[in-house]
Specification:
flat; four-stranded antiparallel β-sheet; mainly beta; 157 residues; single chain; 11 strands; five-stranded antiparallel β-sheet
């Protein structure tokens, strides 16, 4: 198995988020896409999200998490936590309520507020490549049958 295929399999396997506490009524699925810039027949450039066949360092990825309340009552106060595959550097999320962890999920906050302790004991501001997990706390009730999507971007290391 080539390194590119191993990386692709790792991305798919590790991009599986988890749910808490309303997980018993909320179904969750995830998908990973490669963002490619394509040139059409008229020479115009456009960006498309494609199913990853092979990924290489520098490729831009989009992770989309879809959720649906499968229960008969509103789901309240559920959390979606997604570990970031080690082969991927965090590149942002459009969701303002997303929280980031740079220590395996022990501490959470905005990237600009998090710090990393270096081997020499000094502290530095966390950078996108330090992100280990992304979390969304969805406080608004999700009515029965309702759906939603969350997303984030990454770059293959």
């Amino acid at each position: 198995m080539t390194p590119a295929i191993r990386l692709l399999l790792a991305l798919v396997a590790l991009a599986i988020p988890s749910l808490a506490p309303a997980a018993e009524t909320v179904a969750l699925s995830s998908a990973v896409f490669v963002e490619r810039q394509l040139i059409d027949n008229s020479g115009r450039s456009r960006v498309e999200l494609l199913a990853p066949q092979v990924v290489t360092p520098g490729d831009r990825l989009v992770f989309i998490l879809s959720y649906r309340n499968t229960g008969e009552k509103p789901a309240t106060h559920f959390t979606v936590t997604n570990p970031l595959p080690q082969a991927v550097a965090y590149a942002g999320t459009p969701d303002e309520e997303a929280q980031i962890s740079v220590d395996g999920g022990k501490n959470w906050g905005r990237l600009s507020m998090l710090r990393i302790r270096e081997e020499d004991g000094r502290w530095r501001s966390a950078r996108p490549e330090d992100v280990t997990h992304i979390r969304w706390i969805l406080a608004r009730p999700l009515r029965a049958g309702a759906t939603g999507k969350l997303s984030f971007r990454g770059t293959v290391r």
